[in-house]
Fold this sequence. Notes:
The complex is a heterotrimer of chains A (423), B (363) and C (482).
Chain A: H1 14-23, H2 35-40, H3 47-58, H4 64-72, H5 79-83, H6 90-104, H7 109-121, H8 125-138, H9 147-154, E1 169-170, E2 178-182, H10 187-191, H11 194-205, E3 208-211, H12 221-225, H13 229-242, E4 249-252, H14 255-262, H15 264-267, H16 274-283, E5 284-286, H17 287-294, E6 306-310, H18 314-317, H19 324-330, E7 336-340, H20 354-357, H21 359-374, E8 380-383, H22 386-398, E9 405-407, H23 408-417
Helix pairs in contact in A: 1-6, 3-4, 4-6, 11-23, 17-19, 21-22
Chain B: E1 6-7, H1 12-21, E2 25-28, E3 44-47, E4 54-58, E5 63-67, H2 72-81, E6 84-85, H3 99-105, H4 112-115, E7 122-129, E8 134-138, H5 150-154, E9 162-170, E10 172-173, E11 177-184, H6 188-199, E12 207-213, E13 216-225, H7 227-241, E14 245-246, H8 249-261, E15 270-275, H9 281-290, E16 294-298, E17 303-308, H10 313-322, E18 325-330, E19 337-339, H11 344-354
Parallel strand pairs in B: 1-3, 2-3
Antiparallel strand pairs in B: 4-5, 5-9, 6-10, 7-8, 7-9, 11-13, 11-14, 12-13, 12-16, 15-17, 15-18, 16-17, 18-19
Helix pairs in contact in B: 9-10
Chain C: H1 3-13, E1 19-20, H2 23-26, E2 43-46, H3 50-63, E3 67-70, E4 87-90, E5 97-101, E6 106-109, H4 115-122, E7 127-128, H5 141-147, H6 154-157, E8 164-170, E9 176-180, H7 191-195, E10 204-211, E11 213-214, E12 218-226, H8 229-241, E13 248-253, H9 254-264, E14 274-282, H10 284-299, E15 305-308, H11 312-328, E16 335-338, E17 341-342, H12 348-362, E18 366-371, E19 376-383, H13 390-407, H14 426-429, H15 432-445, H16 472-475
Amino acid sequence: MLHTIPVETLGAQGEAMAKAVESCVHCGFCLATCPTYRVLGEEMDSPRGRIFLMKEVLEGAMATADALPYIDRCLGCMACVTACPSGVEYGHLLTPFRARAEQARSRAPLNRTVRTLVKETLPYPDRFRLAVQSGRVGRWMRAMLPGEIGAMLDLLPEILPAAPPLPELYPAQGTRRARVALLAGCVQQVLAPQINWATLRVLARNGVETVIPRGQGCCGSLSLHIGEAAQARDLARRNLAAFPADVDAIITNAAGCGSGMHEYPLLFAGEAEAAQAELFSKRVRDISVFLDELGIVAPPPLAQPFTAAYHDACHLSHAQRVTAPPRRLLSQIPNLRLVEIPEAELCCGSAGTYNLEQPELARAIGERKARNIVSTGAEAVITGNIGCMNQIRTHLELLNRPLPLWHTVEVLDWAYLGKRLGD
Amino acid sequence: MATITAIAPQTNADVQEAVCANPQLVVRGGGTKSALLAADTDAATLDMRQLTGMIEYAPGEFVFTARAGTTLQEVAATLAEHGQYLPFDPPLVEQGATLGGTIAAGLSGSGRHRYGGLRDFLIGVRFVDGQGRLVRGGGKVVKNAAGFDLPKLMVGSIGRLGVIVEASFKVFPQPPAFATLRAPQPSLDAALTTMARLNGSTFDIEALDLLIEEGGSVLYIRQGGLATTLGARQESLRAWLGGGEALPEADEAAFWAGSRSIGWVPAGWALVKTPVTLTAIPVLEQVLAAGGAQRRYIGGGALAWIAWPGDLTQLDAYLTQLQLSGLVLRGAATWPFVGTRSGASLAARVKRVLDPDNRFPIL
Amino acid sequence: MNLDGLLDELASRFPAARLLQKPAQLAPYESDALTAFRSRPAAVLLAATQDDVIQAVRLCHHHSVPFVARGSGTSLSGGSLPVENGLVIALNKLDRIVRLDPAQRIAVVEPGVINLDVSRAAAPYGLYYAPDPSSQLICTIGGNVAFNSGGAHCLKYGMTANHVLGVKAVLPDGEVVQLGGESLENVGPDLTGFFVGSEGLFGVALEITLRLLPKPQLYRTVLAAYDSLEAAGDAVAMVVASGLLPGAMEIMDALAIEAAEAAVHAGYPRDAAALLIVELEGERIQVEAEFAHLLQVIEGSNPKTVTVAKDDADRARIWKGRKSAFSAVGRLSPDYLVQDGVVPRSRLGEALATIERLSRKHDLRVANVFHAGDGNLHPLILFNGRVAGELERAEELAGEIIQMCIDLGGSITGEHGVGMEKRQHMNTMFTATDLEVMAELRRALDPAEISNRGKMFPAGEAPALRSHGPHPLERQGVISRE
């Protein structure tokens, strides 16, 4: 698209933003795959429309505040990137735009409170654990609380699982084939610590030694995707320092984290850490990609045949283009039948903290996903992201179909251990 | 009622002149659709048979352009020399039907089943309207989206919106060989069910006609294509049908020629074309059987040819009741439409533009 | 024209969530896929029911306010470009498939139904909807009807008009009409056919009865690479001369191949000057026999490589590349113009040579994608709008290509329609009398010219192009601002 964006005034990310606008040919192919367009049916809430609005703002033809409601409603799921024949890197426009907008906007007090809670709690496991525990106490007040807080409470689990601390090193079983470092994550450590343990065991079973660097922390993706660029950089810097260089890969088992860490180069464009961020990001691998590339030891068959639906987390399938590896891994487990979910390209509505910021839309989108899952007749749902697990669980329960939600690596772990799925 | 003046134009300008000079005008081609020539006024007749001849034909383009008075016979022969044909299989070729008359009546034959009817193959048209204007619509290439689709407007306009002087058609390669199965059916219902199944199947069928013969409902199914594979294909079809006899080659050609010439209509009976659907046929059948009509359903149940004995008023009433429409092609009728008509108000608006003075009969 | 009157009445009947009036809401509706044109409407109505549409049209008629109906806004000719300060009636929420009758092989749909969704709904019955424009995963039936959309597979089965059996529409003056019906046949003037392709000038279709076809038993697809576009064009002539009737025949040149590969990695041969895709479809026994014949013909046309699709996945990949080609060209160039001309197939070689010459003359690259089977060309003129003068040169080149199509006896548009983009060329394709009659027909349905005003017919005013200085057609003396 023709534009008159004053690139030079936009800082280090200006080029990337302008390039995204330029490569958009306004063909509309993205509308078919955008969850908000599917639900709302209006051009402003489509990738094509949002690109146009962001262009207008950057050109100075529109006030940021006017465009923001529609930019806010964007899930950041990147389904449009997958669908776009013209190669528009929508994320390279959206993320910096949100960061710029964040500086300028004034938020309503309630909204600020929620954002503060999110910013200052989620990235820090100890604080988050505490918040969850006190949150449970507040649940009985739910009816009296405004939408966004209520949404947060709704997503809290009933029981917090036990979380033994992770070791510094987890050795390989048998001959060592590779050495990796694990990003332990933040929210996941509190809500589903078993995923990290399953990850360690599966890696070990496949001859991979894992280091869990001390001093690491949240990767910053949550902050990055809600426009808090400065906080994202602070958190990321910590990891840039904490992770060793002498590993074959930096492993993550959360799609949101993997996607965020792959955006480090853009985040640090023009900063001192630019080169380091580039190197770091190149070594990041989702656990499914790493295992698929490595080639896994054949898992033993499940005791009973089992049918599960594989859900593509949008930050894995669209943002990182990872769709085949998890399916290939799972299909190596005999007696496990994978079924595809209709409208698989659509986000579940979790999208980072979207379900907190846009509860109504997230609900509509989440319900659509849950119905699609139920239609497959699957006994469980397997996916690669903690956010999705939470969101889908909530919406399946609302439909009275409480199917279990498992991580890809948990399923592999059970198979290797000869246990029943869900044990 | 004898007409007073007969004009035989030889050029488009002649046609324009004739239109301007005569307050009332009826157009005729080969006269094969006699009911469409009726006029109860002192209308002059415009005899188009001298406005004849192929203008352009590029077999490699799958397109030809010809003057409206060209006989279908001439067109078919020219196309056949290059292994091509009119895919919509227009009727009354032997009887001298012209291209213009066929378009005006909107007639397609049994072969419409494979690729579509006349309207799907007409790509360009030139006509003289009621104000003597020479107008062109469409073009001479198979793909064209410029301007309003005036060619479609002319299809079925029975000479009441303008005089067609020239037409361009898309054509296809003619199948090298044909074979036909004759499959008697135990009942009308069975016949319709089989037709529906066949219509939804992956068999490539050239023609699918339903005849109501003495013994009951009979399906005639024509396949066309490479001679080498035709036998196997017919066998496959017969197995799928669970029966049917292959017509010998000479009989098979004769049968479809007979279909084309609509010779089965008894002398003096009216001939009416009625668009139908498979769901409409059972009720229509009751009415037609009761009225002593003879009939055939062609195009996989898309069209009914009705031969009606006697006065058309009764048929008109029946069709109206069934919400079906009909075009009277032969028979005593001052008004060529029977049954219901959709879009009449839009047609009236169009008529007011193209023929404000009603030089042509009313629509 | 009483815009305020209209807006007041609309506001009293529709909630703000469905009557968009804020600048940030209107801006995204200013263009469709032809971004050279922008025009801001006064409001956008997100219609939810057929009745909404009828009400809106009647109100517009009453207040003499122009309106434009819009589906997914994917028109390449500016067909859904709003009229400045007029109303946009968005139909994308009218997305019900009212009825699908597999035995009758028809589907009755509302105009906002996405083209591909018709085939998806018909698939369980072994049926599909044949017209397949490249944008079919998002374009709507309403838009297809307005522009008589084509696609790669219309050589054998025709365009949208050949698959529409009936239309229920609201005319611009508010009358609701029912045209056609459910039968494949018709009596009286073919008004349904007349409505299709009228580019929104005859009102808004509310319900469309579509014809469905059985999915062919077998597709056989071959991809042949050539050292020159001419060789590919000759191959097409040979296929045609052999008496075969393919379901589709498509050609892409080197630039288009490069773009498509970058976009979807279809696995196209990278060093070819031209690619030819030929597809046969039908009954298995017949198709296998014809395909053997086709391969012989292709081998005899001196190809560099020949690839036969082994299975559905292969076939899907081949088509994905072709269908992404237009949009994929966005990777090669910041901007481009899509053309849509037709030339008689025998003059294809000549046309391509001319395009190449014109491309050199204007110093702009042109990628070529086209429906070789029916001579429908899609030259994609690449330019960079940020470089002074390039947009103007691109427009000039576009005008010369269109003129060439007319000179060779073709058409100014094969399937994208005239819309905004090619209005001025209607003068060269049709005589003044032709246009006069068309204009009168238009006014018979729309005396105040409120339905998609300013489209299709040559206008006295220059179109609202975002360029500087006189429009190339103004410089050529074809149009004037006076």
